[in-house]
Write a structure and sequence with these properties.
two-stranded parallel sheet; two-stranded antiparallel ribbon; mainly alpha
Length: about 170
């Protein structure tokens, strides 16, 4: 048992605003894995859809963002037909139904998402890094906590491989 309390902070949305990266990577993953036939009938916008932003706090695992990107981009999807509020009420069920509809598995999507991120880093690390905006006041406060010997941990859905790269750049 710990004698000292531990402060746990969520990485995504608390320490860093990464919505641009989440959309970019999720969108690109969809484009990488869907069929040419579906690419002709589904439009994946460059701009982040409002529904994607609204649903992001519901995400527990990175692969879910790929499902959301696909559902946001398909005008006939449950998300677009029912709306964010109804979709979020049955989030896990809706994600399961979307996985079946697209014939995807969570592990398939997570592997594909991680590969998309590796390619983005390899192709243009600075652009990938720029898609993550740290909240400077939070970063400064974490440095203060560290100097004061206060233990803290960071929770994230992002793979450790990518989180480490970001944290190293934020010092």
């Amino acid at each position: 048992m710990r004698e000292k309390p531990l402060l746990v902070l969520d990485f995504d949305g608390v320490i860093v605003d990464g919505i641009r990266e989440y959309w970019s990577s999720s969108r690109q993953t969809c484009l990488n894995i869907i069929s040419a036939k579906k690419k002709k009938i589904i439009s994946f916008p460059s701009e982040i859809p409002t529904a994607f932003k609204a649903m992001r706090p519901w995400v527990h695992h990175g692969w879910e963002m790929v499902v959301l990107a696909a559902e946001c981009s398909d005008q006939t999807s449950s998300l677009n037909l029912k709306g964010v509020e109804d979709f979020s009420k049955n989030y896990l069920t809706e994600c399961s139904l979307a996985l079946k509809k697209w014939s995807w598995t969570p592990s398939q999507l997570q592997v594909a998402l991680n590969q998309t991120r590796r390619e983005a880093i390899s192709n243009n690390f600075n652009q990938w890094l720029g898609y993550h905006q740290p909240f400077d006041l939070v970063i400064n406060h974490l440095k203060t906590l560290e100097m004061e010997g206060i233990d803290f941990a960071i929770l994230t859905t992002k793979s450790i491989e990518f989180t480490k790269k970001l944290l190293n750049c934020f010092n």
